[in-house]
Structure formats: structure tokens, C-alpha cells
Amino acid sequence: MWDVPSRVTLNRRNKLGDGLSVLTGLEHFCSLFRPESKITVCNVPVCHELMDIFEFPHIDYDESDENAECLDEVLFTYCLVGEVREFWPAKFYTCLCVKAGIPVSSVRGIQMPVSKLGAWEDTGSQVACGQFDTRSGAPLEVYEIKRMLSVASFGKEVILIGGPDTKPYMGDTMEYRCGNVLMLAKELLKSSHFIGADSGVGHLAGYLGVPLYIVNTCGYHSVYIFYRKYPHLHLIERDFIRGIMNSQPQRGKTI
Question: What angle do CA 111, 115, 119 make, to 5 degrees?
């Protein structure tokens, strides 16, 4: 029977959402089944950055991936293809259990990592953070982003954070702040709320407890499942942003 190796790596080395789910899954797996041992994540830079933000006591990091087993099969075969429909922080852990032959029915209660920076607090900030991943399979049009910001900014100034690809997409009419994952986390913790599409930055905000206003670009049920247990979650229907609907449907946590 397959077991989780002691040294692991990924080919998707800089995917923020993947890194969050992988680290959370490995940590939860160790806490339940290997409480006296550790797993070393090798040569996955985004995981290294996340370990500076969250506590993962059962995980070490090594820049060398020598003798490390790649977990892409678990990530792609079980996780990304949608075979396992689960809250994003629990998804990779669930996939590990499927691969290892552990009954999925026994998978309950993922333990979220503790933030070394502290959790989000409502300090009355007048700045909201936004991020719209233009590399998404269902990217928003510029007019949709502008309408989304008008609907969910609530009079706050909005700064766009994340990768460098958003600025040429949105133009020079907004403030942009790009940097490493630690910088993103600090900006999110100072903000009033997060506005965006399904993305790694959105999940980082959820991990930190930041209020979320997520536009539904991938189908209501998939986005809701990925985000449903984060605190302060609000889903916004894409048709509402497009102006096709006059009001939001009364289902789930929507605005």
C-alpha cells in the first residue's frame, strides 16, 4: 500500500493555492498518522515562503530535491481533475487519503494552520485588497472587474495585489502592489476585505480570516465548495456583475 514519503516535491513550484493545500494536507496527515515524525518539502519555493507565515510543526524544508518523491500524481490525478470535491484546505489531505487507501468517509475536521502574523481584525481600515487572476481558465473582462469593484468596494480605496500580469490587463487607473507571499499576507491583514476571483491570493486571505467577496467564475457549486468554511465569505454571481441579473439569487452566502 502506498504511503506518504518522508521527502516530497512538486513540479508546480510557485502556485500559491497548491502550496497552501499541500502544506495543510501534509501537516494534518502527520498530526493524525505520524505525530512523532516529519515530512520534508523539497525545492518548492512557494511552500518555503508560506512556512514563514504559518506554523507547520511537522514539516521541514530543503532546497535540494534529491531523493524526493514528486506528488504531482496526487495533485493532478485526484485533486485538480475534480474527483475530490472538498473545501480547498482539506482537498490535498483528502487526496492523500484516497491515494493511501484510507476511507474518505473518515476524513473530517481539517486543522487550519496558525498564522505567525496573527489573524485579521476589523480595525476600520479604509483600504480593501483586490486580485483578479488573468491566467484563470475563466478570466473576467475588464468591465466585469470594474463593476465587481463598484459592487464590493463599499466606498473603500482598492489596491490590486499579487502577480505582475494584472497591471497591463487593468491599465494605470489603479494602485498595484506586487511582491512576495509575506508582503501579500501583510497587505491582506491591514485591509478591510478582499475582492477577487477564485485564486491563490483569495485562499491566502481566507486562511488569514480576511472577509471575502469572491465572484463566481467557475460554477456556483465548485467555488462554494472550495471556499465554504472560510469565515466572512460572500459569493457574487458573475451574471449579476455582467448586469444580466438585477439582483443576487437567494442561495448560499451571497450578496
Answer: 105
pLDDT tens digit string along 91-125?
A: 888 888 888 888 765 556 788 999 999 999 999 99
- Three-state SS annotation for 13-41: CCCHHHHHHHHHHHHHHHHHHCCCCCEEE
Give per-residue pLDDT as tens, 35-83. Answer: 999 999 999 999 999 999 999 999 999 999 999 999 988 877 665 444 4
Q: Which three cell numbers stand for residue 59?
A: 514539516
CB 184, CB 14: distance < 8 Å: no
Question: Three cell numbers at 60?
Answer: 521541514
The boundaries of the domain holding residue 43 are 7-106
pLDDT tens per residue, range 219-245: 656 788 889 889 899 988 888 888 755
Q: How many domains does the chain contain in total?
A: 2
Residue 61: inside a domain: yes
Task: Quote the mean pLDDT of the chain.
Answer: 84
137 and 221 within one domain: yes
What cell does 77 get?
490525478
Q: How far apart, in whole angstroms, are the C-alpha atoms of residue 101 and residue 42?
A: 25
Grid cell listed for 136: 484563470
CATH number, domain with residue 170: 3.40.50.2000
What is the spatial distance between Cα 139 and Cα 156, in angstroms, rounded to a whole number?
Answer: 24
* pLDDT, position 249: 42
